[in-house]
Specification:
Number of helices: 8
Radius of gyration: 20 Å
Oligomer: single chain
Number of strands: 28
Helix content: 10-25%
Shape: globular
């Protein structure tokens, strides 16, 4: 696996400015950038000229990650030339399906379970799927369920929901060199020489009593303990309630279904003042236990380091060639000027030779640990590490 990275900013243009060693041979370009950049085609046309043979895959963000830098209003690209791995892409527009569950199933079935190997008559089997989704209209929990239902057993899934800063206005997904709104895309990776490690951790502290969700529908929350959920939420937020839904990122909900299970975190995508409802990035099922959460700076950074350790162990404690970091926009808003500390913590674990890329998202998709159930998370740092052996 050979990798090179470039960053575009309005101030400096492309850095580095000259084409790299794999400009003509890169097969894949991962691109993460600001929404304003995704509205225009000019920069992507420039990327295509630099890497003419590459398949471009990426999304708009709430902040871009390149090595240990966290940027805004930039375009970060990571060009990859695989030595032994193949890939296939697929996408679905939301208008082509009835719901997120169906969208996940469509993508899973669009990816072949195996492809012909390059140098023999054998088959390279599907190993991992990286999914990037619209960040505003998709129920991430249903998307994951649809993917898992139709993917071959043992195929792992990670990814995230595209972002739009703290504006929550529009998000874009880039697939097959085309950037579109209201789209979900998947990248299937094939080959027995590819090792994939992943981990997802948060670092938020609970406060207040645990409450029961007494009325909800999918990812729409109506009532907690028989009372208006939005009204109760505003009471806890106090003066922060004026900034909803963005300020809701600072106070997510932790959900659990069964006693003793690890809770998943949910953040708000939108509020409806007339209906007094809150819409979340994933399911908030009736009967689940919910508890408000608040930030703990040190624990957020420790969570990122923990996710890195988990992904590192899963590939046999070898330095990965590439690691994709998907962290929640809520973490970025809380950490502020300390935000790069969580990325630096990941670098300390994965080593200097791993190329780090990624983005701040509206939701993260991953199992907590290898072998666990894949789920949508919010407010976590999710890391997917890749190594070719």
């Amino acid at each position: 696996m050979k990798i090179e990275q470039k960053i575009w900013t309005k101030t400096d243009g492309w850095k580095p400015g000259s084409p790299g060693a794999i400009a003509e041979s890169a097969q894949l370009v991962l691109a993460f950038g600001a929404t304003s950049i995704f509205r225009k085609k000019r920069l992507f046309n420039e990327v295509k000229k630099i890497y003419p043979e590459a398949y471009m895959f990426g999304c708009s963000t709430a902040g871009e990650i390149c090595n240990t830098s966290v940027l805004d209003d930039s375009l970060c690209i990571t060009a990859v030339r695989f030595e032994h791995t193949q890939f296939k892409g697929a996408k679905v527009r939301l208008k082509e399906v009835t719901n997120s569950l169906q969208a996940g199933g469509y993508l899973a079935q669009a990816l072949p379970p195996a492809v012909p190997a390059r140098a023999s008559g054998k088959k390279d089997e599907l190993v991992h799927v990286l999914v990037l989704s619209d960040g505003l209209q998709v129920n991430g929990s249903d998307l994951v369920r649809g993917l898992i239902q139709y993917l071959p057993e043992g195929v792992t899934v990670t990814g995230g929901l595209a972002g739009d800063g703290d504006r929550f206005g529009e998000t874009f997904v880039l697939c097959d060199n085309i950037a579109e709104k209201d789209t979900i895309a998947a990248l299937g990776l094939y080959g027995n020489r590819l090792r994939v490690g992943y981990g997802s951790l948060g670092g938020w502290d609970p406060f207040g009593p645990e409450r029961i969700i007494t009325r909800s529908e999918g990812n729409i929350l109506y009532e907690l303990d028989g009372h208006s959920a939005l009204g109760l939420y505003k009471k806890y937020l106090g003066e922060h309630a004026k900034g909803l839904p963005a300020t809701g990122l600072l106070f997510p909900l932790s959900l659990r279904i069964k006693t003793g299970e690890t809770g998943v975190v949910r953040t708000i995508l939108s509020v409806d003042e007339i209906e007094q409802t809150m819409t979340f990035a994933g399911d908030v099922p009736e009967g689940a236990y919910a508890r408000f959460m608040k930030a703990n700076f040190d624990r957020l950074i420790d969570g990122a380091i923990g996710a890195a350790k988990t992904s590192y162990k899963a590939i046999g404690e070898n330095t990965p060639g590439l690691a994709i970091l998907i962290s929640c926009v809520g973490r970025k808003l809380v950490l502020k000027q300390r935000v790069e500390e969580e990325v630096e913590g990941v670098r300390d674990i994965l080593g200097d030779h791993a190329a780090l890329t990624g983005f701040y998202s509206y939701g993260e998709i991953s199992p907590f640990t290898p072998g666990a159930k894949c789920e949508l998370h919010n407010q976590t740092m999710t890391i997917t590490a890749f190594l070719e052996k």
